[in-house]
Amino acid sequence: MHALQLATRVPADSVMRRAPSYVRGGRVHGPAASVEGPLPPGKIEPLRSVGADASHEALRRELAEARGMIAALHDELALAGDTIEVLRRAGAACLAQIRHLEALLTFEADAVACDVLAAVAEAHGIRIEEVVARRRSRSLSWPRQMVCALLAEMRADMTLARIGMHVGGIDHTSVNYAIKAAHDRVRAGSVHASWPGLRQQFELPAELPALVRGRVWTLKRMETGDAA
């Protein structure tokens, strides 16, 4: 009788249909987080450019949507009488995404990174949220490779892991691969039409300097503890 009442009041899969794609697909990224207690405070640093402002607003919308999803899950599960384990699993995914986005907002290199994100997103006709989201899509591969290659060249002080924070939280190995893939595309002449314009916009030389790739491998050795 209890199961029949639940099925009548709320469809069994209604919670997961309303959850973000990374929850519906079972891909919970980042460390598990408890939904008990207040959300971690988000210290939002002021950004210093038009591109940074656009990315700032986009990420704030992402934060609001994630927090709204947690509140909606609380209400849904309270009405449906579902188990607390479902709430913990979905809430952990939402909180992991919130922390990832808050890290982007408070990161010390936001001004430059957000300029690059905004320029690449505009050049490809996509939203900044798509570039920084954890969703994997073949159509986003080249934009993310462009972001990684540009940041590696423009910000010699940024580690590969920190560059990865801006393209879905990928690890330093994936960032290294993305930069190499971008260089291979340039050498093969299969780059996006916006590539020359982006390099000109950020006052970079037309040709990729050979030092960029060497810097990438040096950083990888530093991050993994291998001797140079």
Describe this protein's structure.
The chain has 228 residues and is mainly alpha-helical. The protein folds into 2 domains: 2-106, no CATH class; 110-224, DnaA protein, C-terminal DNA-binding domain (Chromosomal Replication Initiator Protein Dnaa, Chain: A), CATH 1.10.1750. Helices cover 66% and strands 0% of the residues. The protein has helices at residues 2-9, 14-18, 21-24, 50-80, 84-106, 110-124, 128-132, 141-154, 160-165, 172-188, 195-201, 210-224. The longest helix is centred in the first third of the chain and has 31 residues, at 50-80. It is elongated and about 60 Å long. It starts with a helix and ends with a helix. The model is unreliable at 1-12, 20-50 and 217-228 (pLDDT under 50). Residues 112-182 form the Chromosomal replication initiator DnaA C-terminal domain. Pfam families: Bac_DnaA_C (PF08299). GO terms for molecular function: ATP binding; sequence-specific DNA binding. One of its GO terms (biological process) is regulation of DNA replication. InterPro entries: DnaA_C, Trp_repressor/repl_initiator.
Features:
single chain, 228 residues, mainly alpha, Chromosomal Replication Initiator Protein Dnaa, Chain: A, 2 domains, elongated, disordered N terminus
